[in-house]
Amino acid sequence: MPNALHQLDATDLAARLRRRDISAREVVQAHLDRIEQVNPAVNAIVTLDPEGALAAAAQADERLARGAAVPPLHGLPIAFKDTHLTRGMRTTYGSPLFANHIPDEDDLLVDRLQRAGAIRLGKTNVPEFAAGSHTFNPVFGTTRNPYDTTRSAGGSSGGAAAALAAGMQPLADGSDMGGSLRNPASFCNVVGLRPTPGRVPPHPGANLWDTLSVPGPMGRTVADTALLLSAMAGPDPRCPISLETPGDAFRAPLDRELRGLRVAWAPDLGGFAPADPDVLAVLEPQLRVLEELGCHVEAACPDLTGADETFRTLRAHSFDLAFGELLDSGRQALKPSLVRNIEQGRRLTTADLTTATATRSQLHLRTLDFFSRYDLLLAPVSQVTPFDAELEYPREVAGQPTHTYLDWMRSAYLISVLGVPALSVPAGFTPGSLPVGLQFIGAPRADLAVLQAGHAYESATQHGRRRPDLPTT
Asked: What are phi and psi of 248, to 5 degrees?
């Protein structure tokens, strides 16, 4: 076998498992060995159940040996984000308040992936309550970037992205409110999709009508990401915003002719999200790739007036709903920036929420108008490259100081408020060998078209094939 099993794409592994060229036990053991070798340097996987994973792998092998039909993720190991409930396995949210919390149910996403054949390895690290796009917390410490362990892996799905990039798992789940799938994907040279809200139904949750935070998939390739989406997506009656399209729709080949596609390039999202020069130096040459694929590329951006204030208002409101009781009972155990976010939510007035709702409606109509003229919007995923892991957030962006941990994330969260699918695809490296992602953004519910465009770009560039060189123990 030319490659170690932990280096193979998930789609390749799945095909080999179905053909019985390899066994689920071999695949799981290869990833457990890789975790032992590199996780001490990265700190991406924070809870591990090797015995349970190997037992589940043995059962998967036995099912296949009996000639039973196997689901699409048969035998593929995955460690779930530590904000997603896992029955019988601790879910800490990165908080001392939940350091020993063992749920008695699975999140819908976790249940669906296991029913699709995925084998639970453990849990991946998160910021405290997934607040912020740098993964550190007082329970498990900091997750480090596999390409430079002095740098951030992003967040809040930072442990997921780092484990994926380092070969500790072939697929990764996550969630995204302000960039929590896209930022870590960009920082770790993997693929991350923020789906259209409702594509992957959240359950349980404090607010099942919420369209700001969405679960979603990550992979080392766009095809792997689509494979995982196919197992996550589909309607559920308990989620009132869930979309009716079945997950199988995302299991078809992604090959598509891009000739004639109308593509807009918005390097600073209309002036609302300036990016550092080293980010743009990597991304601007990538436009030529799209042109060579036959796309018509020009500078354009939807009108994002009011998007920043709307996102911050709705986010603060959601934090008050989700964590207000914790603030009352355990303020001292919460990080100061989280306390400030909850308190901001408590200060909101009815007028604030009414304005945010009305502005978001206007943004939706402007977005539809924009995508009546363009098929695709391209933008930076992150305004900065991976920053010092000892910082809570970068202190300046494009020469301007940052005042909160949200200020450097506008290129991601301004897209979140539009309710559209957005895909981070590896786009190359800085001269200092730091990864940079390109954001592919589509019209509402155009998830498949976004995946197809990202796949075509990925096939033409192969930037995601560059793997980190990590020390092994």
From this structure: -55, -25
